[in-house]
Amino acid sequence: MKLCYCCSNISFENCCEPYLSGKAKPATAETLMRSRYSAYCTHNADYLLATTHISTRKFHNKKDILAWSVQNTWLKLEVVKTTETTVEFKAYFMDSSLQSHCHHEKSSFKKQGEQWYYVDGVFENLNQ
């Protein structure tokens, strides 16, 4: 059993994979954020674009998302705090020069119908 990339201690097959494959939709902002982290780990730029809110999607492109996801080795996700529409998290990764980093962000999410979307994020201290 392969544990999920999002550090939920649940198998990938029973955690984020159904969202990434389109078989299910995340029920909460936190679940969407965790699935988006798994999408970075699996280099699923299509999912990342599809789950970005239409109002901010123009600021992102598949080529850059894919490059960033592939150029880094994703190590661990830590959820710091959640509300109904925000998730503060730390994503630990190693860049291509083998330097360790922490991407610390407070993300905003919006639900439209049955679908949650990532809207934007405020970066905290990026290398703590």
Please, could you describe this protein's structure?
The structure is a single chain. The chain is an alpha+beta fold. 27% of the residues lie in helices and 32% in strands. The chain contains four helices and four strands. It has helices at 17-20, 29-42, 45-50, 62-71, and strands spanning 73-82, 86-94, 100-112, 115-123. A four-stranded antiparallel beta sheet has the order 1-2-3-4, covered by helices on one side. The radius of gyration is 14 Å and the shape is globular. 29% of the residues are buried.
Key features of this structure:
4 strands, alpha+beta, 128 residues
- Outline the low-pLDDT stretches: none
Number of helices: 4
Alpha-carbon Rg, integer: 14 Å
What is the H/E order?
HHHHEEEE
The biggest beta sheet, please?
4 strands, antiparallel
- In round numbers, the mean pLDDT is 94
- Percentage of β-strand residues: 25-35%
Sheet/helix structural class:
alpha+beta
How far from one another are the termini? 32 Å
* Helical fraction: 25-40%
Q: How many strands?
A: 4
What characteristic shape results from the CA principal axes? globular
List the helices and strands and how they pair.
Elements: H1 17-20, H2 29-42, H3 45-50, H4 62-71, E1 73-82, E2 86-94, E3 100-112, E4 115-123
Antiparallel strand pairs: 1-2, 2-3, 3-4
Helix pairs in contact: 2-4
Task: Characterize this entry briefly.
It contains 4 helices and 4 strands, in the order ααααββββ.
